[in-house]
Amino acid sequence: MMSPTYVHGYTPREAQRLLDQAGTLAELLHHDTGYPAGSRVLEAGCGVGAQTVELARRSPGAAITAVDLSAESLAAAERRVREAGLSGVRFQQADLLDLPFAEASFDHVFLCFVLEHLPDPQRALRRLARVVRPGGTVTAIEGDHGSTFFHPDDPYARRAIEVLVELQRRGGGHALIGRELYPRFVAAGLSDVTVSPRFVYADASRPAMVEGFTRLTFAAMVEGVTEEALRAGLMSREDWERGIRALYRCAEPNGVFCYTFFKATGRR
Length: 268
Hints:
This protein is an alpha/beta fold. The chain contains nine helices and eight strands. Strand 2, helix 3 and strand 3 form a beta-alpha-beta unit. Strands 1, 2, 3, 4, 5, 6, 7 and 8 form an eight-stranded mixed sheet that branches. The longest helix is centred in the first third of the chain and has 19 residues.
């Protein structure tokens, strides 16, 4: 992904978190993801391929080009797709603001958890729209950390999430971008824009969601920026650790965790 500072880092632990997230949310986010055989699809910012596998699995016969700025991430994505026994995906290193494709090269563009990490997501959307043929579509999926609420409620946990949002802002990102997808798509010149909220609800009656999202995706994501948060002086170590413990408490039998993703599609 093109980003001056990917706040979550590129560690093996972060790569595993992305895979846990993708597996847990596959049906919620992608039950309506899929492109017809023969379609030319660009996946922009494929990262380590966590979403590429779902895209390829649900679009058999489509010709998918997956791009990312990181050669290391591309190698991991290609390996992951190959190990999943999937075909029809070509990988290419590219910057989203300087795509090596002519106008109208693709029928569809797909990106997931990418815009939140870009310093100029609006410019990126305009560039991506250019490579779609007239009548083709752009689809983006993004989260919004401001949509988080949970039980037991805890001021330190809420502050830790605010710190993550601030760290991402300082790195040039937009952790609250989910709520902005509709106006951003319209401003990029796309028409027929629709946005579908995807609500995560996890309690003890949904153990897979508790483990896969509350514990392994969200709490792990916040905990993963511990050193950055402490270096920035945004919370004391004691308060930060209290917040992290409170987030993990939401994965215990009496815990509840809620979060909203947004999926937007627009037509060129």
